[in-house]
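Expect chain and fold; thus:
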Amino acid sequence: MTAYDLPLNASNWGIDTLVSQLRALRVQSLEIRQRRDKPPKLPSRRELRIILESLSAVLFPNRLGLADLNDEGIDYFVGHTLDTLLRDLYKQIRRELQFMSGHEGIDAIAHQRAIEITREFAGQLPEIRTILDTDIQAAFEGDPAARTPDEVLVCYPGITAIIHHRLAHVLYRLGVPMVARLISELAHSATGIDIHPGAQIGKSFFIDHGTGVVIGETAIIGDHVRVYQAVTLGAKRFLKAEDGTLLKGNARHPIVEDDVVIYAGATILGRITIGRGSTIGGNVWLTHSVPPYSHISQASTRCELFDGGAGI
């Protein structure tokens, strides 16, 4: 037997030392965050992914559900899937509520509130399906490469992102922002489109191509808006409290009114308003409001900058 044939064990990697060091770091981190030794569990990204797949199948059983569903079996499939996914969603919502309250065990208040939120969320699924139909139709009508609305539903990353957002936004408004944010991040990971669940988005919203789109928490988007890849609706600056910490929740992202088109690479920052029917050209950097039916190009923004920096 040579030295190379000797068995490997934990001592080869110094595992006991690593475990001890990692434990010390966990304890230190928990103390900094004022958490106890066994903090409540967080909602599970893995379990939420399964829930989101089931929700998509419930909303669109003929296209995102089981391949062999017939007319007689659809209602049974939808009902059975809903029963399972809503039980699982309740658990994730309860986890967030317990985490925020600091209770590790099943708390009666968190239990009851999780049931209420889950019920309210479920009750809004028909409305979500209705508005998603307008998004799919907007994509079909807005893209000459789209052959059918079904192709849009199963192939377009913008639709995947907006399905996630419509669901996440309802949960965000119902008071479980962590679950909502995890749902948004699942879409972000899959599509490269980053929409904060707090953003308010009207009907018939179309994201063409989509990679690199960023829409901030307090953005408000009207009806029949179309944006292209790498568009940012972001904050111009972050307000701070006297102690230097960032102020949370203040309105800091753009308002985009109805029937606006924003082309690829445009960056729109701050609590400004893009007037109804406007067109924002590619790669424009915009930090001031524009009136309805404006046509903003790189050339026009450069002229404003050279004429004295109005709005910059």
